[in-house]
Amino acid sequence: MKTKSAHFIFTSGKPMSLYDQVAVALRRLGSGDSLVTIGDSFGLNHSTVSQVTWRFVESMEERGLHHLQWPTESEMAAIKSKFEQVRGLPNCCGVIDATHITMCLPASEPSSNVWLDHEKNHSMVLQAIVDADMRFRDIVTGWPGKMKDWLVFESSNFCKLCDKGERLNGKTLHVSGGYEIREYIIGDLGYPLLPYLLVPYEGKELAEPKAYFNRQHFATRMVGQRALMRLKEMWKIIQGSMWRPDKHRLPRIILVCCLLHNIVIDMEDEVQDELSLAHNHDSGYHQLICGASDAKGASLREKLSLYLTRTLPP
């Protein structure tokens, strides 16, 4: 990035330093303000703001991807321990959730219908698997917002690795009665119940072990909600409706916002959770229920609900 820094200049004719360029890019991603607004505040042409921001995005993709990785074995042990401390779920490796990045597209745009979702917004979906400290550990983006959560998941590389036994394949936990609890992630009813993905029990009048499981599951799952809220609060370029974004560039901007989200968490002494987080990360969207169920997933969920209420046979 340094080699070309002289190519960017302020309207005054002064060349932009590397620090200037990073400041402009972070302002664009963090504020979501228009190119013109940011250009005026820095003394730059709006085209320069756009070019500098894109150079920053490309540089982050080249050099920053190590900030968003699936945990190592030792990292995973710490993550499981933290999840268990939340509400007692043992061997839990993450929370999966999804959100919509909305866009303003004119109806005259030929591809606009492709991006029209079930809530009549134009949007792109972001699926994230989050650890207990709100770090993103796996993301998928680029799909139109009308694609249902479970289809985004089933098309993901993460799902394929799990099905092949190459993800969530770590240590099994042995509990009373000779039962084994494998590694798993948790999600809401927008996902299928799988051997490695546990969703809540459906229904209202549930027996206590099931009702208790749902309460603990919900409380643990909130870390995913908070992570996505924090992402959109801190990197406002993806919070509101983006005006006619380039659909090829938008997934890369979303990825870089996720990388920056993780970098901020890594720089903190403790995870700061005091952001207002006033709004739902997916305001206006109603949950679509998947309903698909796998027998091994049902068995694991049953064992966990009995384990949590301490009613497993000895």
TrEMBL record:
Places the protein is found: Nucleus
Residues annotated as domain DDE Tnp4: 96-262
Signal peptide start and end residues: none
Highest classification ranks of the organism: Eukaryota, Viridiplantae, Streptophyta, Embryophyta, Tracheophyta
Family: Belongs to the HARBI1 family.
Keyword Nucleus: yes
InterPro entries to which the protein is assigned, alphabetical: HARBI1-like (IPR045249), HARBI1_dom (IPR027806)
Cofactor: a divalent metal cation
UniProt-recorded name of the protein: DDE Tnp4 domain-containing protein
Superkingdom: Eukaryota
The keyword Cell inner membrane is annotated on this UniProt entry: no
Key words, A-Z: Hydrolase, Metal-binding, Nuclease, Nucleus
Pfam families per the UniProt record, alphabetical: DDE_Tnp_4
